[in-house]
Amino acid sequence: MSDFSSFYEDRLMPLIDSLQGEKKNIQKKYFRYLVLPFLILLLIVLFLARSSLQPSFIFFLFFIFVFVAAIVHIKISGPYMEKFKNTIISELIKYVHEGLVYDHKKYIPESVFRESRLYEHRIDSYKGEDYISGMIGKTWIEFSEIIARYKTETRTKNGTRTQWHTLFDGLFFVADFNKKFSSDLIVKPDIAERLFGRFGQKLQKLNVFQHGELIEMENPEFEKVFKVHGTDQREARYILTPALMEKILNLNDKIKKKINQDISLSFINSKLYIAVPLSTDLFEPRIFGKEVVKAEDIFEYYSYIKLMAGIVEDLDLNTRIWTKM
Question: For the chain, what percent of residues have pLDDT higher than 70?
Fold first, then answer.
């Protein structure tokens, strides 16, 4: 960590300081274009509230203000946030590994997310940002922030009620696996067994809403944490060797200490997919307050980048197996 502290002081701090003046200008623009208009609108609303105007008109005024404010916010903060990501975050990623490339506007495509078969539910909204990709040794990796959601509609006496539900929010990781295989293998947290014990095991065997058949592995600790479904029993054991199961358990423990949630994995078309649930929005500068970004935020961003890039080493993906070169 002392090496990173030196990098932070020598390389990142000058870049952060260079954005300080721009941040102050943005704060002035916020006051001029958002705070003052809001105060004026508030006075108008208080005046109109004494008249016979319908409350719906007042709500309409607030709705218009919020809509315009959102556009103004993007216009004001967009260039500043882009500069922060293209300088500070790019330098941070290069420090973790020279082979990694960063594009804050891109993200893992929805088609790739679906290919993982980790989330089979319908997706009605899919977006992301902060795409990181590159070669680490012999292994190509890519990951980004992803939010996938679906909506439900219910009829009420007042009409139709729409609710949005989060399917996945976090970091989604894809890598070339170090073995060739043709079957599908899904490894997800074993919530049923943890909650219901042996009854949970029986529920799993019903195979409701699962791709493939339930596969029982020979590692009791792995079975306690994960449930495994696949389309080929023999190939599942070729992929999930005893050594790899131990490595996945260790990786899960490492990530769980940080986010208090288990990861999900799948092995499809000779690729490895890992979903890391995370509600924190990473790699964002501060707009309000004194600092462009706090030192602890930078250390946090660094730890997540290092964690994701470190999956290659944690799972020994650079060790090529037989024909996989």
Answer: 89
